[in-house]
């Protein structure tokens, strides 16, 4: 198992901030999806393209902060996949929302498995059980997206929003878990 390049305390602080940021962006995306995205089709299209684009950027930033892309192959692959999916979603929008949901399904499976791998690799950093669980659930959600994309009902952005909401939940759980662990560790060190 490969470990992160940074010292444990710095890694934990970075991941806590990073997970809070990821949760916040996801909550904002979900709110936008259920409000403006639901009512304004061009806004929904922009949000659907922005979601994997943000994931690509976030994976690159995290990997660079955690020792570089070469030291974090699952994140490098996840960033590459998210970049391809960003383009794929933009192209699929021309074919309809069934095609978009299918692209999201494939991406959710792949990115979920890569997130699971990242969580396992980072296990020593703490709070990675939530990231691993999120990755596994993402892969299952991707399968659901593909099935729904082949159905008769017309999908929309609100079919993707719960997926993003669960992602926000897992990022928030990890951030809070790391915050509590750091506070406990600080209290223990002060009393020692």
UniProtKB/TrEMBL annotation:
Q: Name the domain of life this protein comes from.
A: Bacteria
Q: Name one Pfam family in it.
A: DUF308
Q: Which UniProt keywords apply?
A: Membrane, Transmembrane, Transmembrane helix
User: Can you tell me where the transmembrane regions are?
Assistant: 19-37, 99-117, 129-148, 160-180
Q: What is this protein called?
A: DUF308 domain-containing protein
Q: Which organism is it from?
A: Methylobacterium frigidaeris
